[in-house]
Amino acid sequence: MHPPPPGAAMDFSQNSLFGYMEDLQELTIIERPVRRSLKTPEEIERLTVDEDLSDIERAVYLLSAGQDIQGTSVIANLPCLMRQNPAETLRRVLPKVREVLHVAGVEMQLTAAASFLTVLQEESVSIHTYAHSFLQVILLHLEHRDTGVSNAWLETLLSVIEVLPKETLRHEILNPLVSKAQLSQTVQSRLVSCKILGKLTNKFDAHTIKREILPLVKSLCQDVEYEVRSCMCRQLENIAQGIGTELTKSVVLPELIELSRDEGSSVRLAAFETLVNLLDIFDTDDRSQTILPLVKSFCEKSFKADESILISLSFHLGKLCHGLYGIFTPDQHLRFLEFYKKLCTLGLQQENGHNENQIPTQILEQEKKYISVRKNCAYNFPAMIVFVDPKNFHMELYSTFFCLCHDPEVPVRYTIAICFYEVSKLLNSGVYLIHKELITLLQDESLEVLDALIDHLPEILELMSTGGESSVQENKLLSLPDLIPALTAAEQRAAASLKWRTHEKLLQKYACLPHVISSDQIYYRFLQRMFTIMMTNNVLPVQKAASRTLCIFLRYNRKQEQRHEVIQKLIEQLGQGKSYWNRLRFLDTCECIIEIFSKSFFCKYFFLPVIELTHDPVANVRMKLCCLLPKVKSTLKIPADKHLLQQLEMCVRKLLCQEKDKDVLAIVKRTVLELDRMEMSMDAFQKKFYEKDLLDQEKEREELLLLEMEQLEKEKQQNDGRPMSDKTFEKKRRDTKTPAALPKSLPVAVAGPSSGTSSTSKEIKKSKLIRSQSFNNQAFHAKYGNLDKCTSKSSAAAYTPSVSAKTSVISLTDNSFRTRNANSVPASFSPNTPLPSTSRGTGNSADAKSSGKDAQPRKATLRRSIGVTAAAFACD
């Protein structure tokens, strides 16, 4: 029905009304089947069951007088009945199930097979009881006329065989199998017998197998039907594992040789795959004298008269070359390698530019087969590198690798992209040979190829940057100038598509870039892009991935000015942004910063901007902030951060007393209870927090090392005009790493209110000196300059803090973080206002004296009993 366009005048002429009547009749016809599907009162009466019946009685009633759908429901619920009342279920329900299954349809049969298997897996009854009650039902329906039903019951039986005792297997399954495997039985019966025989060989000893099972196996291998011969051939692998090496060589191998020459292509294919899977069982003589000639015959026939085996041959070629490695003559080795190369380009020479609609169906099927062959060749490429030796890669296989990476079909390029990491590992120091192919796959037009490649992108880039060696090169990936444009183009292509999971994964993998390219390259080519994604992308997981990656970029940035600009932009454009969505992303970013950076870094730059969001006008922002407050509190150390703790307590109290939104208030109350239970970390090491404190100390040392490295780099540039190499930086970083287990008496490299020890390392002293010289010249931030005054004014209203010593709230910024001049700062990163920060241990001497008692070692676990809970209910 097509309604008139909006604004069109209604036409009441006879023709127009007739048209509307036709449309109404169409609607009536559409609704008619819905009316017919409704149940009549009689049908509803038949489907109604007395509610007072027990589960067992209801099941018996529905199986006896209910409809098929109700019976199917009862059978599906059989495992539950067995768990609740196994005795009554076996006595009353199971006999009814047997009766119903005789005349049941396909759906009920499939449901019964699945339920019987579930009862077995849940072990609701003993194996003896299960065999007595369920096994005969399973065996009875094995030869159902429907193939799907027969296969479902067979899968259940094969699982039952795993747990049945030998005597039950012999009497209930093996003895009847002798007659079921005869030629007089149906093909379906003989196919079932083949699969059962393959399962039984692992349950009996070699003598029983040789006397009772192997004669049946030989008979089925010579069956008149090719389906039976093929099925039995595929079971020979299981039989060989059950009978041992000697019987395999004397019984199984002759059968495989005969089946490999069978007239049926499916039988030959089964024989070939079984031979490949059994290569480890045969000794060198059998491989060289028997199997190798067979394999050569398969390879020759695959191109000439038997293309059906070509796909399987290409798939197993890597395993074949590995299993026969060492018995090839140089001529045979070269021949197999040439055969593999030919398969890698199979079908490419036959392209003639025709449209698929103009090509006959047979040619289309052949093209699909050739694509599968090339895809399998790509899958086996790492094995072929081992076959030729990685040292000969450039001479023997590089051209083939190039063809696979530039293959016109996506499945082939997708598979080689999956294998790219394995290829890189095998080439080791020769990984530079495939630099161009990495760029090619990164720039591939298919996002499926890109998605496959980026799974191991960090490992690949690390191998590329180190040349396959463990030492760090001075020039990271300078030999690959196209890498950064390829990475940025790949990200933009993923962002422009609808496949946001690929985009998210790519952004997560970009976190490895600080280890493979320089800090400046990341700053100018990737950081701004991360900001753009965080602020403009509509997919939350993508935004969070960009946020975390940006934090890692910031963590390893080697220039203070750049770090300063990034931090200021985070605070101004996200934390103080106009959009509440940006402020939510700021809290996500702060959560990552708490995880990645040291506690002192977060407290210095992000603590105050975070707690300022307690005044945010949007309830969702306040709710998210409340959930983050326990992590924020965990960054504080007592007594150094006593003033920050007071600020946190004051903000929480304001939320409790002034919050109007009931949802936010409920979360605030839960957060207060959690904050009250938290134990504060001390400046000194504690047993309870030893590992966390040690990790935080290591993070802080590396952050201080960045300051020192930059100062040394500036001095080096002044001396000889050359920048410090990344190799020197990595060596310096390794030299200053914290040992795995430090003694408790070791001085902690954390700035505190009073540090009386003189045994601090040379690096820490130097970095402190640099910071102390630069801190004095930075102005206070206007917004946070009077926090100490605000704290003193509101101290009467605030609840009592656990640490009562005076602490000056000093908000300083590093002089080295000052804004660069206009000529050296990008427009997107130009800061307008100084950066707020809080500094630990920068109080005056009076404060240091007054807090001297607090600085002494005290009880290891300081519990915050702040009385906030009482204040919360008082405010209510």
From TrEMBL:
What top-level branch of life does the organism fall under? Eukaryota
Q: Where is the composition biased (Polar residues)?
A: 821-848
Localization, per the record, is: Cytoplasm
- Keyword Cell inner membrane assigned: no
Q: Spell out the residue ranges making up region: Disordered.
A: 713-766, 821-863
Q: Which cellular components does GO assign to this protein? A: cytoplasm
Cytoplasm as UniProt keyword: yes
**Keywords attached to this entry:** Coiled coil, Cytoplasm, Phosphoprotein, Repeat
- Biased composition annotated in UniProt, kind: Basic and acidic residues: 713-737
Spans of repeat HEAT: 213-250, 252-290
InterPro entries, alphabetized: ARM-like (IPR011989), ARM-type_fold (IPR016024), HEAT_type_2 (IPR021133), PPP4R4 (IPR039918)
What this protein is reported to do is described as: Putative regulatory subunit of serine/threonine-protein phosphatase 4.
Subunit organization: Serine/threonine-protein phosphatase 4 (PP4) occurs in different assemblies of the catalytic and one or more regulatory subunits. Component of the PP4 complex PPP4C-PPP4R4.
What protein name is recorded for this chain?
Answer: Serine/threonine-protein phosphatase 4 regulatory subunit 4
Q: Which organism is it from?
A: Equus caballus (Horse)
Gene it is expressed from: PPP4R4
